[in-house]
Amino acid sequence: MLRIIFLLSLLFALSNASVQDFCVANLKRAETPAGYPCIRPIHVKVKDFVFSLGTPGNTTNIISAAVTPGFSAQFPGLNGLGLSTARLDLAPKGVIPMHTHPGASEVLFVLDGYITAGFVSSANSVYVQTLKPGQVMVFPQGLLHFQINAGKSAAAAFVTFSSASPGLQILDFALFANSLPTELVSATTFLDPALVKKLKGVLGGTG
């Protein structure tokens, strides 16, 4: 009986010893596909697990919108947890164009204002809703989605991702902010070459 108790106690101790509760990012080291290396637990502070998204981003740009990231590089306590977050600010008429996150699903929580958001499924079904403060919408991983300010005043939202590295590809930039020849873009999008050239000029593309 004593032997069984001893073995159970040893097993319990070993299982506890193998648990790593967190891996706060060591930002002095290079990031790897698995995230940042961990700092030693003795150097971990409570501030590593706290981050502020209370300051609006600068929306003075072509899309009248700003995204303030809260990824591991800004929020070291997220490292290794498979999560990331950000703040979204939309000035009046602001828009986050059609884009996709290849590596994560996204949850959007509207904080202020009204935001029309939606996504397109792989079957080309469209799901669109105008969200008010307090409402939440989810965008499944890899699907094209967007957000537009639907009101006359500034709007803000918090987003969370199911990955530390959700990735980002904005459709407009993928099409028109590159060096693909205009003829190829026109042929694959059915857009007039003159319009393609105009959009490339606006977004900094060439070709």
From TrEMBL:
Give the UniProt keywords, A-Z.
Apoplast, Disulfide bond, Glycoprotein, Manganese, Metal-binding, Secreted, Signal
Query: Which annotated residues bind oxalate?
Result: H101, E106
Disulfide topology: C23-C38
Family annotation (InterPro entries): Cupin_1 (IPR006045), Germin (IPR001929), Germin_Mn-BS (IPR019780), RmlC-like_jellyroll (IPR014710), RmlC_Cupin_sf (IPR011051)
List the GO terms this entry assigns under cellular component, sorted alphabetically: apoplast; extracellular matrix
* PROSITE patterns given in the database record: GERMIN (PS00725)
Location comes to: Secreted, Extracellular space, Apoplast
Could you tell me the superkingdom of the organism this chain comes from?
Eukaryota
Question: Where in this chain does the record put each Cupin type-1 domain?
Answer: 51-197
Signal peptide feature range = 1-17
One example of the protein's molecular function in GO is:
manganese ion binding
Q: What is its main location?
A: secreted
Which residues are noted in the entry as Mn(2+)-binding? H99, H101, E106, H145
Q: Which family does it belong to?
A: Belongs to the germin family.
Which protein, by its recorded name, is this?
Germin-like protein
> Which species expresses this protein natively?
Brassica cretica (Mustard)
